[in-house]
Amino acid sequence: MEVDSGLIKRDKYSILLPTYNERENLPIIIWLIIKYLDESGVDYEVIIIDDGSPDGTSEVARQLQKLYGSSKIVLRPREMKLGLGTAYIHGIQQASGNFIIIMDADLSHHPKFIPEFIKLQLKYDYDIVSGTRYKGSGGVYGWDFKRKLISRGANFLTQLMLRPGVSDLTGSFRLYKKEVLEKLILSCVSKGYVFQMEMIIRARQFDYSIGEVPISFVDRVYGESKLGGSEIVQFAKALLYLFATT
Ligand SMILES: Nc1nc2c(ncn2[C@@H]2O[C@H](COP(=O)(O)OP(=O)(O)OP(=O)(O)O)[C@@H](O)[C@H]2O)c(=O)[nH]1
Ligand SMILES: [Mg+2]
Description:
- The structure is a single chain.
- By secondary structure, the protein is an alpha/beta fold.
- The protein has one domain (7-245): Spore Coat Polysaccharide Biosynthesis Protein SpsA, Chain A (Alpha-Beta Complex), CATH 3.90.550.
- The chain contains 9 helices and 9 strands.
- The protein has a 7-stranded mixed beta sheet with strand order 3-2-1-4-7-5-8, sandwiched between helices.
- Helix 3 links the parallel strand 2 (43-50) and strand 3.
- It binds guanosine-5'-triphosphate (GTP) and magnesium ion.
- Guanosine-5'-triphosphate binds at residues 18-20, 22, 49-51, 81-84, 87, 104-106, 108, 220, 225-227.
- Guanosine-5'-triphosphate binds next to strand 1, strand 2 and helix 4.
């Protein structure tokens, strides 16, 4: 999809790609990002934040940088696994774009949706555009019943208690104005799975405008999934906290 080029030449999109053990996925996701963003004609960079993955993701990232060039592929590794929240902060500090796109590197988020995010943002000047699995043509593929139930349940409870007016609260595939993301990240207190939900609740609190694009989310093929019981407890705690304080 081509994005109207007259409007957007002054804009640059920094795509933050945090990785931990994504050696198999990284070449594919990078290839897809470059394919779809080159087609759309926007100015962009991909910032890979690898946290010392033992599987050698960093080495793959270096190879990809050689292949595609250091203006498109920026490497901002860290020594060890320090978590997603701080990986985003680290990435933002390096970003030269005025817009930031956050996505997972495990192929759950398809880069073909990025030009749609950009188009919608430009049309309404949204502060945030969020991918949604729970509206229109959006959906989830490859999850078992338990995982679907947890995700749906989390969304449902949060909708009920906090009324955020956004259909997908726990997803992370989003586009932000850079200064908006900076402010949001600093205001968030939670870590882990609930972090994405807090971001969108805070966004409502600050009265940021939010657009939504239906996305199909595909479960990771390579690598291990980590959602466990402790994440669910954390989520419940954070929900109550946000309920009490926002
Ligand atoms: N830099 C960095 N990246 C991380 C860290 N933890 C996860 N990631 C990456 O963040 C993205 C999202 O993590 P995932 O493990 O896919 O989390 P998830 O989608 O909730 O769970 P599964 O896909 O089911 O494993 C992926 O690209 C991971 O490689 C971390 O501590 N540091
Ligand atoms: Mg994932």
